[in-house]
Amino acid sequence: MRFDPSQMKSLCILRLSAIGDVCHAVSMVQAIQRQYPQLPITWVIGKVEYQLLKHLPGVEFVIFDKSLGWKSYGDLKRKLGGRKFDVLLHMQVAARATIASLMIKAKVRIGFDRQRAKEGQWLVTNARVKPLTTPHVLEGFMGFAEKIGVTDLTPTWNIPIPEADRAFAQTNIADGEKALVICAAASKAERNWLPERYAAVADYAVTKGFKVYLCGGPAQLEKDLAANIIKHSQSELTNLVGQTSLVQLLAVLQRAAVVLAPDTGPAHMAVTQGTPVIGLYAHSNPGRTGPYLYRDYVASVYQQVMAEQHPSQDIPWGKRAKGSDLMSRISVDTVCQLFDRLVAEQLS
Fold it and tell me: Which domain holds residue 259?
């Protein structure tokens, strides 16, 4: 479908989850806002993700509550109240998002190119972004901004942090303190590094003058992992796991000097704050999902694993590696060397 983006009077964005992905999407939204500062933007977003972005300027949020099950779609339709948008950016490849998009009325419905428009997305859109063969997720999202005429695709982030949340972070990480924040847990246990290796890196950082904090959500898996790291460490670590809201965690990550994390939301939250990240990758391609500004500091065994699991094959860009013990192939020495290089290049 051909259309003139300069004539847009309303824009709806559909990106429900997850934390890392909505962090990437923020940079796209704010690129659109630079190009079209008067354009009203409505973002249909997940309930948890909204808690991180609820202070974002110039965006109306409509919460999609997946906990309602099938009723969530009717709830979304009711919240939108029959409004019709000039353009919908359908930015999530998932059956849930495909169905949710049917609740959103829009003249122009932009989805991914045919190769990436899985889970029936291509059935509910009438325009597509241009194909990309090896994009980072953020670059894939920027294709939507480009499709509606945005010319400056430089990623920047402005996620406001209220003063009370900044004060919370400051009570934990003092001004001038060198803090290593370890966000150890991913959404799936197999993507977590070994607790004794996190502890070894924490101990190493302490010898370099850093204070170490453990951060994460309230899930029992995250609490147990933090307890195991503390048990194996020879140093005094500050445990904030389960004690922060998402915005408080964002404030803590802003004050950190370095963040260490696997492929998980807080790694990408840190990127939005300009905090260097050491990423730990075995299951997913860091070229696609690595911490965008700091992919040079990723400890990855992904390529080796995929070469073993799929010899003599062209490996799809987004394909995940399989195995419950892949993260054990990342050594402490590798991470400590990355830590030293990052400190020398980013903090000196």
Answer: 163-347
